[in-house]
Structures are given as C-alpha cells and as structure tokens.
Amino acid sequence: MIITNAGEGFINTICCLTNVNHSYSSQNLISVNVNKIISDITHDEIVDSIKLELQSWFPEVDFDFIKLYEIPNALPKHTPSEFNRMRNIPQGENGVYFCGDYLYGASVNDAIKSGLETAEIILSLD
Description:
The chain contains 4 helices and 3 strands, in the order E-E-H-E-H-H-H.
C-alpha cells in the first residue's frame, strides 16, 4: 500500500491488488482510494485527474481505467463532540496507549495516522 496524500491531489492511497493475490488478475491491478467530496466535476474528469496524478508518480506506466465506485456513505458520521471525547482518552496511564481509527474517523488512513502518532509518543519516552 502506498499512502500518498499530503493535502494535494485526489489520491489518498494506492493498493497493488495483484501483489496481494496474483489470482485477482493476469495484469497488474491497482486500487486507488480517493477520500474527497468532489461535487462539481464529472466522473470522466475525476478519472482523468487521477490518471494524471498516477502518471506524475509513475511516468513509465500506462494506466487503464476499469471502474469507479462512488460510495457516498462509506464512513460513519462522527460529530465534533464524538471526536473530542475520543481524543481526550488519557494516553499512557499504567503504560497503556490507545490508537485506532475510532480516534479519528473510522478509516484505514485514520487507523494508520493514529498508530503513527501513538508510536511517536512511545518512541519519545526516555
């Protein structure tokens, strides 16, 4: 998996599915994840933008689009008060540290972000 988004572009993550299991396809197959609300452009414009972004990272590869899945309610809705409550869980009491998607927004990206932040806290201890 490649985690790409630093606030720029469309692509959030890329997963090389045929690296996970060769039986998924006889060709190299990737899944591109976009976690943005994109309301004022067409699906074709989204696909074109994603292909340009991919080609900027991998200029030697010619990407073919297969299918776009639009999942409007892919993640649970969290209110700011829920996020604040979860972020206020005490860290380090009795040597216990918490991390996971539930602390941010119930996504793979948030699980990774939470894990990295918790690891940094633990690594900074003397």
